[in-house]
């Protein structure tokens, strides 16, 4: 049996309809003709790291894919239901976005679960989903050891973003869009505690964006 909408959602919807929507009514109406977002953001499902908030975006600005640990998995042509690949294809091929941003974040539960060890994770779906983080885990532990979980997580958050950006190059339509129309790939990390946004430079180093 279905239930009515939860009170918190209804209250939020009423605020939206009384404040934000009237202010952006014309924008919504023009967007009903079609969308032309400039950027695809691949971010974590974590409730604290909403790209629309962080980038001060308006409706129609960002095409957003969110999943646990902001992963771009390996390209897989097995005909399965690959949500990230489908969204990536749609954003790059149909919407012709100018930028693709993989945005990680501090205190990521998915990263921490892998850092602790996926063999210790009692889960039907999370374990296999987080498997692409294993090379980042191995590389970070080889570099800094495993004594400090906080250090391992911190370094994994950055390296996992770098690996996901690298995997974007496995998709032929991505490399074609880079070559033919100058689409750009980016990596970033948002710190929940400090509000600092770091951006990955050409050397794979994350540098704070001046607020
Ligand atoms: Zn996360």
What oligomeric arrangement do these chains adopt? single chain
CATH architecture of the largest domain: 3-Layer(aba) Sandwich
Could you state the CATH homologous superfamily of the largest domain?
Answer: Carbonic anhydrase
Secondary-structure element string? HHEHEHEHHHHHEEE
Please bin the fraction of helical residues.
40-55%
Strand order of the largest sheet: 2-1-3-4-5-6
What is the top-level CATH class of the largest domain?
Answer: Alpha Beta
The structure class reads alpha/beta
Approximate shape: globular
The radius of gyration over CA amounts to: 19 Å
Please indicate the percent range of residues in DSSP E strands (runs of 2 or more). Answer: 15-25%
CATH level-3 fold name of the largest domain = Beta-carbonic Anhydrase, Chain A
Distance between the termini: 48 Å
Task: List strands and helices in order, with pairings.
Layout lengths: L6 H17 L1 H7 L7 E6 L6 H4 L7 E6 L15 H12 L4 E7 L3 H8 L9 H5 L3 H11 L4 H20 L3 H10 L2 E7 L6 E4 L5 E3 L3
Parallel strand pairs: 1-2, 1-3, 3-4
Antiparallel strand pairs: 4-5, 5-6
Bound molecules: zinc ion (ZN).
The site of zinc ion has 7 residues, from α5.
């Amino acid at each position: 049996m279905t239930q009515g909408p939860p009170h918190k959602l209804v209250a939020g919807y009423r605020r939206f309809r009384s404040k934000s929507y009237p202010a952006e009514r014309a924008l919504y109406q023009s967007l009903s003709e079609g969308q032309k977002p400039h950027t695809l953001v691949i971010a974590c499902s974590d409730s604290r790291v909403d790209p629309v908030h962080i980038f001060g975006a308006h409706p129609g600005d960002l095409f957003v894919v969110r999943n646990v640990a902001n992963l771009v998995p390996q390209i897989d042509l097995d005909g399965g239901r690959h949500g990230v690949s489908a969204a990536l294809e749609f954003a790059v091929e149909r919407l012709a976005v100018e930028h693709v941003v993989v945005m990680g974040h501090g205190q990521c539960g998915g990263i921490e679960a892998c850092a602790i060890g996926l063999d210790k994770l009692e889960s039907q779906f999370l374990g296999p989903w987080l498997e692409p983080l294993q090379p980042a885990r191995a590389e970070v532990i080889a570099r800094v050891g495993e004594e400090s979980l906080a250090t391992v997580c911190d370094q994994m958050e950055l390296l996992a973003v770098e690996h996901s950006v690298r995997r974007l190059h496995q998709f032929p339509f991505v490399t074609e869009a880079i070559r033919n129309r100058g689409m750009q790939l980016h990596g970033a990390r948002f710190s929940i505690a400090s509000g600092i946004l770091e951006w990955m430079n050409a050397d794979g180093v994350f540098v704070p964006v001046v607020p």
